[in-house]
Specification:
heterodimer; A: 11 helices; 67% helix; B: 11 helices; ATP hydrolysis activity (chain B); Oligopep_ABC_C (chain B); transport (chain B)
Chain lengths: 300, 362
């Protein structure tokens, strides 16, 4: 046994040749677009988000520009391809701005609720000591319907976008927490987590660098699916009068407003409803497609 | 081998898992004694192999040594320093000096981390070197384990099992540890790749004076790689000795059974090796007396009554040969299975094979 002193000077010299080859990223986009339904959903989602972002540029008029002379004009009237609402506002403009409000409400709720939920989920999976407590807390939150949260928060803050976003976030936290905890528990059993522990890595670094990146696909998929659901819920809250207040444009509120004229001018209620339907459908299919595309077992 | 202070001293460590039943007021209905009073010493530059069946507590022992799990009892000293008591900074320092190589090369690397980053990570955690220095060290390590510098930018899924295992070794070596715990480092690999990795581990040991705690169940690997062997059964060490002494004169019936179970490339032996029957008893309810008496072909009444201590054996020159068997001195001599010459034709074929294998390499 010829044990030598630990010294790496005997190691071969460093050679710096051959630039690192870029990793072959098996194209997520290609896999996502392979399914025609998903491809359509991607297209629809991009169009909807683009329309919402560019609303001020695309809208033919001002969303608050009312002209009672044009009130309840049906689609196809001169200068009003989709007609006008009860206040005589151009429905296309209202839809664009309504979409903007709905999507940003959904985004805010998913970011806020999803962010908190993910943090709770990681904590529960990482520290078994707090797992039971956190998850029972999530169960309690889960047992309240989102509408009830909306009502309560609207009573506290007064109805408005803020109350809706908070209610939707609160309703998203426990769902995200459960999903993240589930996938984090699987990752926690992997040897590379133990390897990281054996290195003496801090908890924060371990979670951020090893745990979170490997749970990202399930977070991403759920956030996309939840985005569609949250928009539907937000529209429902607005429909009930808890959300966006007139004259602000919001798809649910617009549908609610059109309800009064369902017999004389059905387009006022139907068109925003169809748009809600399209948004929710697009993001649901997109979420499903993402799940399939990110699932390594389905990779070819 | 100098008689300097040992690198690692393990004294009577145990890991007991309580088993609870009931929903609200969980009652303790038993204890799984995964590791039950294990002691050994690992000297610098030495390889100690822990062998035994699955579930005998080898991997738990490895994790206890690394303090990845907390022992229920006992003491572990690394270079004279108490591992079981270490906290915070002291524990981090100890972690730099002992690293682990895992069994499953597919699970031991983070799939989202480029190989170079994975290898550099222990250095980053311990704040060793600047970014440039770390990158240089990664290149050096990659070459050391037989990979190319440009592999640093690749991801784990682009490598084979053997390559990944070498990446895992490079990662463990990046902080220049003194002790490497290898938990079944080759059992997930093809036989042809196993030899590569075992030889790599050996080269690295000679080069850097590493000490290995090798967990294995494959006696062929152990015979090649280890200096000393400790045989575990049901959470305890039943026999420990120098490799040569253990293979030549096993004193515990369990060790004998393990050795007899090693496959030998000799068709004449077919049907003549009798395995020990049955499964190991549950560690939740170990049998009284000697844990092995339920399967032991030599068991006597005393074995079921008294727990045999691990005691020194008077063997030919093999100092430090310990076995836990009441009957160690009275056991019949080892059946000469290993010593028996293989048939002349088989020997000729084997010689031809060895010659053919050596030729292209020479």
């Amino acid at each position: 046994m010829s044990a030598t002193v630990p010294d790496d000077s005997a190691a071969p010299p460093i050679i710096e040749t051959a630039a690192p080859a870029p990793p072959v990223r098996a194209g997520l986009w290609r896999r996502l677009l392979r399914d025609p339904g998903t491809a359509l959903a991607v297209l629809a989602a991009l169009l909807l988000v683009g329309a919402a972002l560019l609303a001020p540029l695309l809208a033919p008029t001002d969303p608050y520009d009312n002209d009672l002379a044009r009130a309840l004009q049906p689609p196809g009237s001169p200068g009003l391809p989709l007609g006008a609402d009860s206040q005589g506002r151009d429905l296309i403009t209202r839809l664009l701005y309504g979409l903007r409000t709905s999507l940003s409400m959904g985004l805010a709720a998913v970011l806020l609720g999803g962010g908190i939920g993910a943090a709770v989920g990681f904590a529960a999976a990482y520290w078994p000591r707090v797992d039971g407590l956190l998850m029972r807390l999530m169960d309690v939150m889960l047992s309240f319907p989102a509408i009830l949260f909306g009502l309560a928060l609207a009573a506290i803050f007064g109805p408005g976008v803020r109350a809706v976003v908070l209610a939707l976030s609160v309703a998203t936290v426990p769902l995200m927490a459960r999903i993240v905890r589930g996938s984090a528990l699987v990752v926690m059993r992997q040897d590379y987590i133990e390897a990281a522990r054996a290195m003496g890595m801090s908890d924060a670094r371990l979670i951020l660098r090893h745990l979170a990146p490997n749970c990202l696909s399930s977070i991403f998929v759920f956030a996309t699916l939840r985005f569609g659901q949250v928009i539907l819920l937000g529209s429902a809250l607005s429909f009930l009068g808890l959300g966006a207040q007139p004259p602000e444009a919001e798809l649910g509120a617009m549908a609610s407003e059109g309800r009064n004229f369902l017999f004389f001018a059905p387009h006022i209620a139907i068109i925003p409803s169809v748009l809600i339907f399209a948004v929710v459908l697009a993001f649901n299919i997109l979420g499903d497609g993402l799940r399939d595309a990110l699932d390594p077992r389905l990779r070819i | 081998m100098s008689e300097a202070a040992p690198l690692l001293e393990v004294e009577d460590i145990a890991k007991h898992y309580p088993v609870r039943k009931g929903l609200l007021r969980a009652r303790r209905i038993g204890t799984v004694r995964a590791v039950d009073g294990v002691s050994f010493v690992l000297r610098r530059g030495e390889t100690l192999a822990l062998v035994g069946e699955s579930g005998c507590g080898k991997s738990t022992t490895a994790r206890l040594v690394m303090r990845l799990i907390e022992p229920s009892a006992g003491r572990i000293r690394f270079d004279g320093q108490d591992v079981t008591e270490a906290r915070g900074g002291a524990l981090r320092q100890l972690r730099r000096r002992m690293q682990i190589v895992f069994q499953d090369p597919y699970a031991s690397l983070n799939p989202r981390l480029a190989v170079g980053d994975a290898i550099a990570e222990p250095m980053a955690v311990h704040g060793i070197g600047t970014g440039t220095e770390r990158r240089a060290r990664v290149q050096e390590l990659l070459r050391l384990v037989g990979l190319q510098p440009f592999h640093a930018g690749r991801y784990p899924h682009e490598f084979s099992g053997g390559q990944r295992q070498r990446i895992g070794i490079a990662r463990a070596l990046s902080v220049r540890p003194e002790l490497l715990v290898c938990d079944e480092p080759v059992s997930a690999l093809d036989v042809s790749i196993q030899a590569q990795v075992v030889n790599l581990l050996r080269d690295l040991q000679v080069r850097f004076g590493l000490s290995y705690l090798l967990i294995a169940h494959d006696l062929a690997v152990v015979k090649h790689a280890a200096d000393r062997i400790a045989v575990m059964y049901l959470g305890r060490i039943v026999e420990t000795a120098d490799k040569r002494a253990l293979f030549a004169a096993p004193r515990h019936p369990y060790t004998r059974a393990l050795l007899a179970a090693v496959p030998r490339p000799d068709p004449a032996l077919r049907g003549r090796v009798r395995p020990i029957g049955g499964d190991p008893p549950s560690p939740l309810d170990p049998p009284p007396g000697c844990h092995f008496h339920t399967r032991c072909p030599h068991a006597e009444p005393v074995c079921a009554r008294e727990d045999p201590p691990l005691r020194p054996m008077a063997t030919n020159g093999g100092a430090g040969h310990l076995a836990a068997c009441h009957l160690a001195e009275r056991l019949p001599p080892v059946p000469p299975v290993a010593a028996e010459a293989i048939s002349p034709t088989a020997a000729r074929r084997l010689a031809l094979f060895t010659g053919a294998r050596a030729a292209p390499e020479g």
